[in-house]
Amino acid sequence: MKGLTKILVSKAELQYRVKELGAEISRDYQGQELVLIGILKGGAVFMADLMREITLPIGVDYMSVSSYGNSSTSSGAIVIKKDIDTDIRGKHILIVEDMIDTGLTLQHLQEHLLTRDALSVKICTILSKPSRRLVDIKIDYEGIEIPDEFVVGYGLDYAEQFRHLPDVWIVDTVEL
Ligand code: IMP
Ligand code: MG
Prior knowledge:
Layout: E1 4-9, H1 11-28, E2 34-39, H2 43-51, E3 58-67, E4 78-82, E5 92-100, H3 104-114, E6 120-128, E7 141-145, E8 151-152, E9 168-171
Parallel strand pairs: 2-3, 2-5, 5-6, 6-7
Antiparallel strand pairs: 1-9, 3-4, 8-9
Helix pairs in contact: 1-2
The structure holds inosinic acid (IMP) and magnesium ion.
Inosinic acid is lined by residues 42, 67, 97-106, 150-152, 156.
């Protein structure tokens, strides 16, 4: 497809890592009430794979958020475009995301969910670009670290294209 340069993370590598994360989460949350919150749209593909690797009873819900992208403002800086309908009071929450880049969106979302009296709010992402981080955010379950490249596939898009690709590709946005 036009603009796609090369595969950075293959379908097989993603699958392998998702299995490992699922096993780790299943161990860590044994006996606890866990709700996965998938972040739309990008996190939907990872969410669908991850939940099937978790061997505990869990709740699942989805949210769509955008951030004003200002590190100096707090949880007020998040815009919720689609909210969950689960009551998360007293429950353990795991946010399921496609990519942590600057970390701003997730930092704001984490703070926001804690104000709703969740017992804990942790973060799970399949991809991460540590070199781009602007805030000090703890990623509890980090799938695969990648360099500072713009990638698409496995839920990630460029201008709403390429989300459906099974592998993660580096995209040359100049060509598009
Ligand atoms: P941040 O961590 O707040 O900077 O935002 C992370 C979000 O930006 C991710 O959930 C993606 O939706 C988007 N994003 C960051 N890097 C990429 C990329 O390489 N390709 C596609 N989307 C990206
Ligand atoms: Mg996203």
